[in-house]
Design brief:
By secondary structure, this protein is mainly β. It has one domain. The chain contains three helices and 21 strands. The protein has helices at 80-83, 123-133, 252-263, and strands at residues 2-6, 36-43, 46-52, 59-62, 65-66, 74-78, 95-96, 101-104, 110-113, 121-122, 151-153, 163-164, 175-181, 185-191, 194-196, 199-200, 204-208, 211-217, 223-229, 238-242, 245-248. The strands form five sheets. Strands 14-17-21-20-1-15-16 form a seven-stranded mixed beta sheet, with no helix packed on it. The longest helix has 12 residues, at 252-263. It is globular and about 75 Å long.
């Protein structure tokens, strides 16, 4: 007996913090807007903070870190050096949590600011988003040249063990690996025999979703290798259906084989 999984909907989440526009206080024309943290976001391991009312030449202190002066109200803190020596075994549980925000004016005066709310950011989603967006991550002076390549692989087939190679600490991971979706293709191949709520269902066409796997240099963003892996076209025992069609994806074994081949390159 085959079973059918019907995909209803998916949603995207907003990675930036800050109150919705309707929650912003109203100010009279003669009352200057208060200086405050209005929004924060991450790009790779760089923490971006918007401060409303910050004067040109200001600096932002976030805990023990100081940003460069900004003339646009946005400040950037590079957190990569914090985790350069993080043991690989701790990557899965590491969480950033900026707490204290202090604005320093060009004259040296300092002002405590209210933070943007929940500032916790898990390391794994930050790394995997950097891989998806092909954002390089550099550890600056802490960089070393490994004798053997280690990959961090942002693929479901490596979910339980995303680090492939001899690296002991995060900075020794020199390559990132992920995938891009290839435009789906209707195949005309029909699969049937599935049941929903114990009632026979109709046949469904397989839609092919190939993946372009890629590996790039973690420090520079330069592509090292890429390959298109074809979707598995067998009628699955359990089917994922979208818009009345069965989604087909590459087999894990083929994905793992290609990634391991690349990891062994000199």
């Amino acid at each position: 007996m085959r079973w059918l999984l019907v995909v209803l909907a998916a949603c995207n989440s907003d990675h930036r913090h800050g109150p919705p526009p309707n929650d912003q206080p109203n100010h009279s024309w003669d009352e200057p807007a208060p200086t405050k943290v209005s929004r924060d976001s991450w790009n790779g391991l760089s923490y971006h903070v918007d401060v409303d009312g910050a004067a040109a030449g200001s600096k932002l202190h976030v805990d023990d870190f100081v940003s460069a002066p900004s003339d646009k109200g946005e400040f950037v803190i590079d957190y990569a050096p914090v985790v350069a020596e993080l043991p690989v075994a701790q990557i899965a549980t590491y969480v950033f949590e900026p707490k204290r925000f202090v604005l320093e004016g060009a004259d040296g005066t300092q002002q405590d600011l209210e933070g943007p709310g929940d500032t916790k950011a898990e390391l794994v989603p930050l790394i995997e988003r950097a891989i998806d967006d092909k954002v390089p991550i550099s550890f600056g002076a802490a960089e070393v040249t490994p004798t053997q390549h280690t990959l961090y692989v942002a693929l479901l087939a490596f979910e339980k063990q995303p680090v492939l190679g001899p690296a002991k600490v995060l900075r020794d991971i020199d390559w990132f690996a992920g995938y891009d979706s290839v435009p789906e293709q209707k195949t005309g191949k029909m699969c049937g025999g599935y049941r929903i709520d114990n009632d026979p269902s109709e046949k469904f066409e397989i839609v092919r979703n190939d993946w372009k796997l890629f590996v790039f240099d973690r420090k520079t963003g330069t592509e090292v290798a890429s390959s298109v892996i074809a979707a598995d076209m067998k009628c699955p025992e359990y089917a994922m259906v979208r818009d009345g069609m069965i989604e087909a994806f590459p087999e894990d074994a083929k994905v793992v084989s290609w990634i391991k081949t690349i990891q062994r390159k000199k």
